[in-house]
Each structure stands twice: as structure tokens, then as C-alpha cells.
Write a sequence for this structure.
């Protein structure tokens, strides 16, 4: 990918123009989400951590892009508000934790209005939010049992 040679493993998976600048916004949103007792309760279980490790960044990213394109990106997603399962895949858990589970939550937490299809850049942003949360949770679970937040460089999903 032209202009991305400086990016580390995993960064190219989610790279879009301006993504570096959006990382601050993603971290701000994730910080705000921690003020919600509902969002804060979501955790990856042992099964989900094993799945993340076994499948790797590229396949998890592909799953996330597919889920977002099919279940969230349309202007009027079928069963909006109920389209994201509560378990069964690490991406589903991350969607609930990050407010990217339905169009109402996307509007509330991320300012992405309902009633119109998400652009490719907005879909990439949603996947980046999910990936950042997954990376922070996996790194926190594996390396930081003391509750300190790892830096972006310490997470499996680098940007």
C-alpha cells in the first residue's frame, strides 16, 4: 500500500486516509463509553480470547467488515436495535461495548446519523473502533492484569 510502509503489522488492515488523526477521537469515545455501566460490563471470555489468537488480526478484521457491511451499514438495517447477537463472536461483544451494535447507538455515541447508508470511510471507522477495543481488551487481559491501559503499540490491533 503506497505511503504505508512505515506502518507496523496489523496497521495496514485498518489504514485509511486520516486514520491516524481519528485514533484520538476513537480513544476519546472509548473513554466516554467507560462512563456507562452498561458498556463497561462487556468483557472477552476465555473462548473469545482463544478465538482471537487462533484466527488472527486479518480474519477478525474481515469478519468485522462483513458484519458491519451487512448488519449496520444499510440506511434501514433489518431488525435495527436487535441485529447484533450478544455472544458468539468477539466482534459482537466489542460492538455492544463500543456502541456500534445498532444505528441508534452509532448516532448516540459516534454521531453517525440514522436513515442513511454508512460510507466506506464510516464503515472503516466503525471497524477501527471495534478493533481498538478488541486490542485493548486482549492486551489488558494478557499483559496488564493490574488494570493499567496499554498503549496503542502494545495492542494486537495496531493502527
Amino acid at each position: 500500500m503506497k505511503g504505508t510502509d512505515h506502518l507496523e503489522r496489523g496497521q495496514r488492515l485498518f489504514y485509511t486516509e486520516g486514520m491516524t488523526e481519528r485514533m484520538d477521537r476513537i480513544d476519546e469515545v472509548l473513554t466516554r463509553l467507560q462512563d456507562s455501566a452498561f458498556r463497561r460490563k462487556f468483557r472477552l471470555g476465555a473462548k473469545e480470547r482463544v478465538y482471537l489468537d487462533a484466527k488472527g488480526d486479518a480474519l477478525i478484521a474481515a469478519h468485522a467488515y462483513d458484519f458491519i457491511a451487512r448488519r449496520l451499514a444499510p440506511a434501514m438495517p433489518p431488525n435495527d436495535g436487535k441485529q447484533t447477537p450478544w455472544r458468539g463472536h468477539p466482534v459482537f461483544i466489542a460492538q455492544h461495548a463500543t456502541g456500534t451494535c445498532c444505528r441508534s447507538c452509532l448516532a448516540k455515541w459516534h454521531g453517525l446519523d440514522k436513515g442513511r447508508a454508512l460510507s466506506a470511510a464510516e464503515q472503516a471507522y466503525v471497524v477501527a473502533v471495534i478493533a481498538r477495543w478488541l486490542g485493548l481488551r486482549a492486551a489488558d487481559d494478557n499483559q496488564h492484569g493490574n488494570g493499567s491501559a496499554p498503549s496503542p503499540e502494545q495492542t494486537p490491533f495496531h493502527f
Q: What stands out?
A: Residues 46-71 form the longest helix (26 residues). Residues 1-15, 144-159 have pLDDT under 50 and may be disordered.
